[in-house]
Amino acid sequence: MLWCLLAAIASLVVVGGLLGAVLAPAAAVGCWLVIGRSEPASAVRRRETARRELPHVVRLLASALAAGADPAEALGTVVTALPGAAADGLAPVAARLRLGGDPVEAWRTLAAAPELAPLGRALARAQVTGVPVGTVVERLADELARSARAEAEDRARRVGVKAAVPLGLCLLPAFLLIGIVPVVGGLLTALHLS
């Protein structure tokens, strides 16, 4: 409410007059809609954390499946072994599977979460087609590991580029003042003496 009130007051003050009075309610409603649709920063951080944890979770799930555990038991083991944002998203699915819920529906609900969607889609597809779940999860673990490595390399490259700009902005004036200005000053002095 405070932001909406401030938006209305700002439109009254900045635009002023009759047009400002007409725009004030529109600004308040627009602010209300934008704020209502925005996502809290904690939810964004939690989703990003779950997305970063997903390759490790999938690798552990593949290992549990390779050891002979059924998918429900393996998922329960993973949730217990790796607590965090990804495990919090997997816990309801593990509970549903332990209680005897439909595996396809359980995996599809997992696919509804954007950060855990690759795992949910792969497991639902494996359940529907009859492909061994362990093979699908192992392949997904390799794919997610490659993707995480590529993303880390991209972030490292971006850091280098971001660091070059401030460094250039600091060094260029120093180069001009120490290297160019004395030379130009010396040339101008030599021209005046001639």
Q: Topology of this protein?
A:
Blueprint: H1 2-14, H2 17-37, H3 41-66, H4 71-81, H5 85-98, H6 103-111, H7 117-129, H8 133-193
Helix pairs in contact: 1-2, 3-4, 3-5, 3-8, 4-5, 5-6, 6-7, 7-8
How would you concisely characterize the structure shown here?
The chain is an all-alpha fold. The protein has two domains: 2-38, no CATH class; 42-150, Receptor-associated Protein. It contains eight helices and no strands.
Summary tags:
0% strand; mainly alpha; 8 helices; 194 residues; flat; single chain; 87% helix
Structure report:
With 194 residues, the protein is mostly helical. It has eight helices and no strands. The protein has helices spanning 2-14, 17-37, 41-66, 71-81, 85-98, 103-111, 117-129, 133-193. The radius of gyration is 29 Å and the shape is flat. The chain starts with a helix and ends with a helix. 24% of the residues are buried. The model has no long low-confidence stretch (mean pLDDT 84).
